Amino acid sequence: MKLEEFLAYVKTGKALSSDEIHQFMDEMSNEARRVTFRLNTAYYTPEEVRVLLSELFGKPVDPTLRVFPPFYTDFGKNITIGKNVFINACCHFQDHGGVTLDDGCQIGHNVVFATLNHGISAEDRVHTYPAPIVLGKNVWVGSNSTILQGVTVGDNAIIAAGAVVTKDVPANTIVGGVPAKTIRSIE
Hints:
Strands 1-4-7-12-15-17-18 form a 7-stranded mixed β-sheet. The protein has helices at about 5-10, 20-40, 45-55, and strands at about 65, 70-75, 80, 85, 90-95, 100, 105, 110-115, 115-120, 130, 135, 140, 145-150, 150-155, 160, 165, 175, 180-185. It contains 3 helices and 18 strands.
């Protein structure tokens, strides 16, 4: 399987269940770990971090991107990041289904982006299902938050620290809690 085929398949939202898909995911995970282990085991300048992230993502990253390692991902090739984005230390991107951070996003410590979920029935639990996570412009995600598969967060929204976001968040809204609920609108 080639990367383009996999990325097209995950857009369907169908189960990642074939031997071919699992073998490809294992190969990509090994590649991602090789890069993240290098990234996370030594000091690098911001420019050097961006070079390693470009290798990890399989495409150039914007020169305004700032990431404080350690940074973790088990795939890496389905992450899209805009301009003037900051990602703090210890974030986890499970990006098989796709993670997009638009311009100006600020991501706190220990944030988890989880784009895969298992089937609910006992028989289907061995299968994983992908769905993308999309953050609009100027989204601020507080430390220790988790954003689950299929969630879209609107422009200028704030995810309070420790929130578990299971549903879409409208623009200009603050959400928090487990599961996250609207706290208030931003004027």
